[in-house]
Specification:
About 30% of the residues lie in helices and about 25% in strands. It has about 240 residues and is an alpha/beta fold. A 5-stranded mixed beta barrel has the order 8-11-9-10-12. The longest helix has 15 residues. It is globular, with a radius of gyration of 17 Å. The two termini are about 30 Å apart.
């Protein structure tokens, strides 16, 4: 079964990339002839995903203008008015109306190939499935995962080295009852005192304690997270390879 809808979380500025993001969000950084978000949409569209909601925030008018120039895909934007003070759980709450069917969610700073999207769609058998990579070691900034077999048991940056045996790449699939479970947890967490300060993967961690959350490994496949200046060079090299 295919998935036709995607939600891209692109509200942030990307302050760790300043001055590159002084007047543009990092989703508009160009890599080998396309912006980051154009690469994302191309990979989604190559897998039949033609219904895409993009949550915007910083310099939303620039993102909206860039998206209107992308043909062949139905794209709409959802403005997050509290992007300056919120983490990405708030962006998920803004997009809650899009969670009424199967969908993929993708962080706005993650470059993925069409093959990675295809693997997630083909192998996501649970209501919620997290795409993970496997490395020899994980650092403090990695969104670390502890899994047993293919089941996700815990996810978070604070997992210890001993607990960590995978890393979330920032792309998840929701099928069947998955959208309902996720939406309910997002709304419940938004009602807590911490509210918008939470990561949406904290909701996934909470769900994993009560229900089965699956994982799909893309070990050996190439992807990139654009978060720090060094990542820009690596992402440029990767997209140049894809272009060639």
């Amino acid at each position: 079964m295919t998935i036709k809808r995607a939600i891209i979380l692109s509200a942030g500025q990307g302050s760790r990339l300043l001055p590159l993001t002084q007047d543009q969000p990092k989703c508009l950084i160009p890599f080998s002839g396309k912006t980051l978000i154009e690469w994302q949409i191309a990979s989604l569209a190559a897998n039949g995903i033609d219904d895409i909601a993009v949550v915007t925030g910083f310099r939303t008018e620039k993102v909206e203008a860039a998206l209107t120039a992308i043909p062949g895909v139905g794209i709409r934007t959802l403005f997050n008015p509290f992007f300056k003070v919120a983490d990405n759980l708030g962006s998920c709450w803004i997009a809650r109306g899009e969670m009424d069917r199967d969908f993929i969610i993708l962080n706005g700073d993650t470059l993925v190939s069409p093959g990675i999207v295809a693997k997630l769609i083909a192998e996501s058998s649970e209501g919620i499935t997290v795409t993970v990579d496997i490395k020899d070691a994980y650092d403090a900034d990695d969104m670390k995962v502890h899994r047993e077999g293919g089941r996700l048991m815990a996810i978070g940056k604070r997992l210890t080295a001993e607990e960590s045996n995978a890393e979330s790449i920032g792309m998840l699939a929701f099928r069947g009852n998955g959208p309902r479970l996720f939406l309910a947890m997002v709304e419940a967490m938004m009602r807590t005192p911490e509210g918008v300060q939470n990561w949406y993967l904290k909701a996934i961690n909470a769900i994993a304690s009560e229900a089965v959350v699956g994982t799909v490994s893309i070990e050996g496949m190439e992807w990139a997270e654009v978060d720090f200046p060094a990542d820009v060079e690596a992402a440029t090299a990767l997209t140049a390879k894809w272009t060639a």
